[in-house]
Design goal:
It is built from eight helices and five strands, in the order βαβααβααβααβα. It is α/β, with parallel strands linked by helices. The chain binds thymidine-5'-phosphate.
């Protein structure tokens, strides 16, 4: 049965690691899984990712940033996500439309209705079935993200890590507000070691799969 799971959260919350672990676990249960990420997920969207995350692009204006995320997403949905769902795969995506609402909407202050419209245009209406919001204080997330970037030589992808703590606080609050308004979200406490957090995610995903299987 095809379904679409997204991971969301602030920098350094551990979602990429957890998305990989979940994919491994579901694959081990003989489910067919595709993992992907945004921005990126296919060559054209990966090229846009480089522009978006390059800290040298200090003059990129918020509206151009928003349109680049939408352009990358339109390509990624058409080339990767939509065909995978049509084939019956479980798609696990590291960030999706909620990231644009959290970062460009709540973080940068761009118009939320405009972002909803652009998300609709970019996705053709495809929405996640389940969104796992990995939540932790922005101070801790940023500290972890900076340590990770240094260890993995990811300074060329650091444009958002260089934003203020206040910006990341707005992003976190935005995510939490969205989660409070939609039953597609599960808020996962992302503090604790990798296995502890993975256990919380597995429980949420198993409950979701059971409810899907039980649906008439
Ligand atoms: P990543 O760190 O999860 O790879 O995501 C890259 C950055 O892009 C991260 O700082 C969040 C940001 N982002 C947005 O600002 N808007 C979006 O729509 C997406 C998908 C990511």
């Amino acid at each position: 049965m095809a379904f679409f799971i997204t991971f969301e959260g602030i920098e350094g919350c551990g979602k990429s690691t957890q998305a990989g672990l979940l994919a491994k676990r579901l694959t081990g249960r003989r489910m067919s899984v595709l993992t992907t990420r945004e921005p990126g997920g296919c060559p054209i969207a990966d090229a846009i990712r480089q522009i978006l995350l390059d800290p040298a692009n200090t003059t990129l204006v918020p509206r151009a940033e928003l349109l680049l995320y939408a352009a990358a997403r339109a390509q990624h949905v058409t080339e990767v996500i939509e065909p995978a769902l049509r084939k019956g795969l479980i798609v696990i995506c590291d960030r999706f439309t909620d990231a644009t609402l959290a970062y460009q909407g709540f973080g940068r202050g761009l118009d939320i209705d405009l972002i909803h419209t652009l998300n609709q245009v970019a996705t053709g209406g495809i929405q996640p079935d389940l969104t796992l919001l990995l939540d932790m204080p922005q101070e801790e997330g940023l500290k972890r993200a900076i340590q990770r970037n240094t260890a993995a030589s990811l300074a060329h992808e650091e444009r958002f890590e260089r934003e203020t703590l206040e910006f990341h606080g707005k992003v976190r609050n935005g995510y939490r507000q969205m989660a409070g308004r939609s039953d597609r979200f599960r808020v996962i406490d992302a503090q604790g070691n990798i296995d502890t957090v993975a256990g919380r995610i597995n429980q949420a995903v198993d409950e979701f799969i059971c409810s899907r299987n039980a649906a008439p």
